[in-house]
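sorry for the late reply, my laptop died twice this morning and i had to redo everyting from scratch. anyway the thing you sent over, i finally got around to it. pasting the sequence first so we're on the same page, its 446 residues, then the predicted structure underneath. double check i copied it right bc i was rushing
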Amino acid sequence: MSKTPPGPKGEPLFGSSRTYANDPFRFISALETAYGDVARFDMGPMDTLMLCDPTAIERVLVSEADRFRKPDFQGDALGDLLGEGLLLSEGETWEQQRRLGNPAFSMGRLAGMADRITDHAEDRIAGWETGDVVDIEQSMTRVTLDVILDLMMGVELSEQRVRTIEEQLVPLGQRFEPDPIRFAAPDWMPMPDDAEFASAVETLDEVLGDIIAVREENVGTDADGPMDFLSVLIRARDDGKQTAEQLRDEMMTMLLAGHDTTALTLTYTWFLLSEHPEAEQKVHAELDEVVGDERPGMEHVRELDYLERVIQEAMRLYPPVYTIFREPTEDVELSSYSVEAGTTLMLPQWGVHRSARFYDDPETFDPDRWRPERANERPRFAYFPFGGGPRHCIGKHLAMLEAQLITATTAQRYRLDFQGETPLELMPSLTAHPRQEMSMRVEKRD
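ok and here's the structure:
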């Protein structure tokens, strides 16, 4: 068993952090191509192993998940933002919060709310006319915010409040873009964008405070009250099972993580359909056959097989969460290498999803690669847009249901033609956003 995996030699002090920060997507792909299953590099002072071995990824996320945790470095500014919410909490705190959240995200509950997702989609596209040019990323952000506020918080916000939330997303995103100076600097050192970040967090806290105050007026009891996540947590707080800080942290996590990844999935789905008109035609033909003149609903989702494959392929090519991190709590062996406790492990969806080792023509948009007979030939963790194991994304079912219903509702009425420059350039933050404005020309379908 070898002690040290291969990898690039970095610069003094910075390691490979400057190369990574310049373009993490290119960096990840280059390492996967050059080194395969495992590559070692220095992220500033952090010794980092990048794992692209689906078997090892499965062990880290699923079969041996109790031997790995989220690294402490994810808890500085991210901790200030999300606190002890489901995304960052560990141990008993995470287990309790997950148990509280599960009923709100159950497929049984969500299936009964499919019509409300369609309602929100219809409301947001109602004014579109042929020839209009819309920023599809902004449009999808607004509809997924509407959905998360309604289904998980039981509230509806004014347009002004929605815009206030949107305005805070820019400084929040900038704070988490890779920065070699931050990688190398001590935690106590102030940085130029700290003030804007703190102001954005404060503004969102005020919005959440207002949301919680409104919802407190009608949460009922566990026996007869509403089952949105916020109502569940307010009742738990009132019963002494939840602190005010925990409630805030979960709602901040829900507000941000709950809409962003789905909005990006939809954005990239529209882009790919625009770039591949033959796939767009198949989506329209399937909608005409399955949905016809009816409103898309739960009864249709189960039959929209091609649309589901399109969305899966969009998440393969453009995974909104493009890498996740873990660290072993004890010495382990991964892919024939000894890994010391505390080593940072990078599990990059971007690198694995686009690997020629697992996908034919990996850069090609091919929804039919998700037909069961082809998908079953690949290792399970050659695709993990929602993570995996006990800590897989609690909102996975909601995200897929949203993506299918919002796409179906929109594509039933319109064609969208991308007006921006290609190829897409991506902006790395906690999630992968397009750098250019995602302008789409609207054309009504006959």
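The chain has 19 helices and twelve strands.
thats about all i looked at so far, will dig more tmrw
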